[in-house]
Design goal:
The structure holds two protein chains of two kinds.
Chain A (H helix, E strand, L loop, with lengths): L4 H4 L7 E5 L3 H13 L4 E5 L2 H10 L4 E5 L8 H10 L8 E6 L4 H6 L7 E4 L4 H26 L3 H14 L4 H15 L2 H12 L5 H13 L3 H14 L4 H13 L3 H14 L4 H13 L3 H14 L8 H13 L3 H14 L4 H17 L3 H17 L6 H13 L3 H15 L3 H13 L3 H27 L3 H14 L4 H18 L3 H17 L6 H17 L1
Parallel strand pairs in A: 1-2, 1-3, 3-4, 4-5
Chain B lengths: L6 H33 L4 H28 L7 E5 H18 L3 E5 L5 E5 H18 L3 E9 L2 E8 L28 H15 L1 E2 L2 E2 L1 E7 L4 E8 L1
Parallel strand pairs in B: 2-4
Antiparallel strand pairs in B: 1-3, 4-5, 5-9, 6-7, 8-9
Helix pairs in contact in B: 1-2, 2-4, 3-4, 4-5
Classes of the chains: A mainly alpha, B alpha+beta.
């Protein structure tokens, strides 16, 4: 018989398992198999919606989910939502059950990948081997994933290197993780070198993608383009390569080319919601309103059962339709949205603001004014805490209704939180252009941005001259004024920590630094300085404990 | 008028359908066997033979689908770095109950630290096919092994049967540049060989491509199938 020393010791008895499949017979078979493996807690769900409810109510250790669940959420959407909402953490195991070898599906879902796949039909022994080997692999990956979540990249790399030296069965997965950690950490040159080494061992798509990403992040756009194009020339189904290629075109100032690339990807993988949204936004920016409309419509259709569905999908669809003079249909889209979204102030605000825009275009000032007044009322209820997409639609409605002051005030607020975010600034430029004030708008963007940079530089200057106590005071005020600006908040944390480095850590400053860091992570989890700031924080916190 | 579907597309969609039905059949049988084993009834050995035929059918369909995709240039490689030991264990576990029901033992000989870049599903399809054959012709043992040989990564399936008939022997000298053609006259076995050769050749690394070899002898003095990957 086959030797299985490594997996023999794993005890499955106490694992909680959820089986998701739309066929009653298959669920029954699966539950029988699991029971015969000694597993005691087994639950099942007949569709994606039921699965999500059960996952929300209880932590499962293992989820066996069919990819094709009939109408409603697909297996992929269950995985996405469960991960997105934190129902499965780094220790949970998600195995996707498929009817056949669907490489297209596997390559299409880079962002949320299951831990493994299981091809139907399978016997009990195969299921047992699969569960045990994934459990075993998960054990060595778990610590790396936890370190990544904590942004402790150096620790993650240490674990990767230790494991790679031991050649575990999931060596490829560990190497993949190591490359990703290097890129996340910002060690792009090191990542490039690592991927080059991996590629001498075999022509792995993930390694070629990683190598291209390193080039992209190093600013070598032509090299990155060549690499992504080469991948696609060999296999035109590697969806991630399209996304990266589009990103590269955008970075090198070629939005039309980026759009073309994303259109190809969307045709190959028509169910991927987030790409439709990106493509729609890009097409709108390129003034290709036909494509924008098609993409946002696809986002609305495929988003029906997704956790990534937002009011923006509908308002942007409505705006694209306005541009094509389909005004009546545009209103209908917003009406549909107001039926589909819950009655909460943020959804009502967004939809009312968009409605006001459409009424203005229809030359119905009274209706436009009424909708805008409603939006304004909701905005006051929310006390200014708005996502930028919503704030900008509201600002545009004010500008179109002739209230330039209110409109520009809101926009200044959005710039204040996003002065270094090109995507948001570009959207603001579009708003100014569409409201007939491109030059004045550009000046507002320039002035506000410079204002914030000056504010930041003065604080940095204080810190440089060693006046740390004053710098703390300065940045605390600045952060109170610009609570959504990540650079200001990051600097507030940093000066607090520099002060403690010199004068020793204390509980009050540590807790302040921690809350600024939390803000930065909430605003932009991928902000490049986070790992450095966090490792500084960890060191200070451990000194405080040991003192 | 509705546009005319090409015959090969109709074939492919029928294949998908048939494969799904087979899946349900396989699982129902699995339940019956489990119930049978509990009650200790005599026929459950016969059911294994039924399951064997279903598996064989299933593998033929997978192979046919792969060949169809290759024909339409839709078959793409998903190469990754895999543990040879784990791959062989995964193949063995799928077959061992059935083989054991006939008193055939499966052995694996492979260093746990051996890794290679390959398309796991395609390679597994090739080995599955060979083991299914061995089931019919071997006497008491099947040996799966992986090693590095002359700069190539090689997986071997050996049995202690009477060996392959002369018409089936192929590239007995294990020559990377062997240019002989696959003989189709042997029906489904020929198709299996064609598929194996295609999969081997799809694996390319540094201007070298994979190849297969079939000879008699080896450690078990029976048939030896090898697939070499660069």
């Amino acid at each position: 018989m086959v030797k299985q020393e490594a997996t023999a010791n794993i005890n499955l008895k106490m694992k909680k398992v959820l089986v998701v499949d739309d066929f009653f017979n298959f669920r029954l078979t699966m539950k029988n198999m699991l029971r015969s493996l000694g597993i005691m807690y087994i639950d099942d769900a007949a569709n994606g919606e039921e699965a999500i409810k059960k996952l929300a109510a209880r932590k499962f250790d293992i989820i066996l989910c069919d990819y094709n669940l009939g109408p409603g959420k697909s297996g992929q959407q269950v995985l996405e939502e469960a991960k997105y909402r934190g129902y499965i953490n780094y220790a949970g195991i998600f195995i996707m059950v498929t009817a056949e070898n669907t490489l297209e599906m596997i390559m299409g879902a880079m962002e949320y990948e299951p831990d493994d796949y299981l091809m139907k039909p399978f016997a009990k022994e195969v299921l047992e081997k699969k569960i045990k080997s994934v459990t075993l692999k998960k054990e060595n990956v778990r610590d790396i994933e936890k370190a990544i979540i904590d942004s402790d990249f150096d620790h993650a790399l240490r674990i990767c290197d230790e494991l790679i030296a031991q050649s575990p069965a999931n060596l490829a997965e560990i190497m993949k993780l190591k490359g990703e950690v290097l890129l996340k950490k910002g060690a792009y040159a090191e990542a490039a070198e690592f991927y080059d080494k991996v590629l001498t061992m075999g022509n792995m798509t993930w390694a070629r993608l990683g190598r291209g990403r390193a080039d992209l992040l190093l600013g070598r756009y032509e090299d990155a383009k060549n690499r992504f194009e080469e991948i696609l020339a060999q296999n035109n189904k590697v969806i991630a390569a399209y996304d990266e290629l589009a990103r590269t075109y955008l970075k090198s100032g070629q939005p039309e080319e980026a759009q073309q690339v994303l259109m190809k990807a969307a045709a190959i993988s028509p169910r991927a919601l987030l790409r439709h949204k990106t493509l729609g936004g890009l097409a709108y920016r390129n003034e290709d309103y036909t494509t924008a409309e098609t993409s946002f419509r696809a986002a609305v259709v495929h988003g029906k059962h997704s956790c990534f569905k937002t009011t923006s999908d509908y308002t942007q669809l409505a705006k694209s339709m306005v541009m094509r003079d389909a005004l009546q249909e545009s209103l209908q889209v917003l009406g549909q949205a107001s039926r589909e979204f819950p009655e909460s102030p943020d959804t009502r605000l967004h939809l009312s603001a968009a409605e006001s825009l459409v009424y203005t275009k229809m030359n119905k000032p009274a209706e436009a004014k009424r909708a805008l007044a409603q939006a304004h009322k909701y905005a006051q209820d929310l006390a200014g805490d708005l996502p930028s997409a919503v704030a900008l639609d509201l600002a545009q409605a004010h500008l179109l209704a002739g209230d330039v002051e209110k409109g520009t005030d809101i926009i200044r607020g959005v710039i204040g939180a996003n002065h270094d975010n090109d995507d948001v600034l570009n959207t603001i430029r579009i708003v100014f252009k569409e409201t007939g004030m491109p030059e004045k708008g550009e000046k507002i963007i320039k002035d506000t941005t410079e204002d914030i940079m000056r504010l930041n530089n003065e604080g940095v200057d204080l810190a440089r001259r060693g006046k740390l106590a004053e710098a703390i005071d300065y940045f605390e005020k600045a952060a109170a004024r610009l609570p959504e600006n990540k650079i200001i908040n990051a600097n507030a944390a940093q000066v607090l920590m520099l002060f403690m480095k010199q004068n020793g850590p204390d509980e009050e400053r540590l807790s302040k630094a921690s809350s600024y860091l939390e803000r930065v992570r909430r605003i932009d989890g991928a902000y490049a300085d986070i790992p450095m700031l966090l490792s500084m924080y960890r060191e200070l916190a451990s000194r405080e404990v040991s003192s | 008028m509705t546009p005319k579907m090409s015959f090969s597309d109709i074939l492919a969609s029928t294949l998908h359908d048939t494969k799904n039905s087979l899946g349900i059949l396989f699982n129902n049988l699995e339940n019956i066997i489990a119930g049978c084993r509990e009650k200790n009834c005599a026929q459950y050995q016969d059911f294994y033979l039924l399951q064997y035929e279903i598996k064989r059918l299933n593998h033929s369909l997978i192979r046919l689908l792969s060949l169809y995709k290759a024909e339409k240039s839709q078959l793409t490689m998903n190469v990754d770095f895999h543990s040879a030991r784990e791959l062989l264990e995964d193949v063995a576990v799928q077959h061992e109950i059935l083989l054991a029901s006939r008193g055939i033992q499966v052995d694996i000989d492979c260093d746990g630290g051996l890794f290679h870049a390959m398309d796991r599903n395609l390679i597994m399809g090739v080995i599955d096919n060979i083991i299914n054959n061995a089931f019919r012709y071997t006497k008491s043992a099947v040996r799966l092994s992986a090693a590095v040989d002359g700069g190539y990564f090689v997986i071997r399936v050996e049995d202690d049967g009477d060996g392959y008939p002369p018409s089936m022997l192929f590239n007995e000298q294990q020559d990377p540049n062997f240019s002989g053609n696959v003989d189709f006259s042997t029906g489904s076995t020929g198709l299996g060989l064609y598929f194996s050769t295609m999969v081997a050749q799809m694996h390319v690394n540094r201007d070298q491509s994979g190849f297969i070899s079939i000879y008699n002898g080896g450690t078990l003095r029976g048939g030896v199938f090898s697939i070499y990957l660069p």
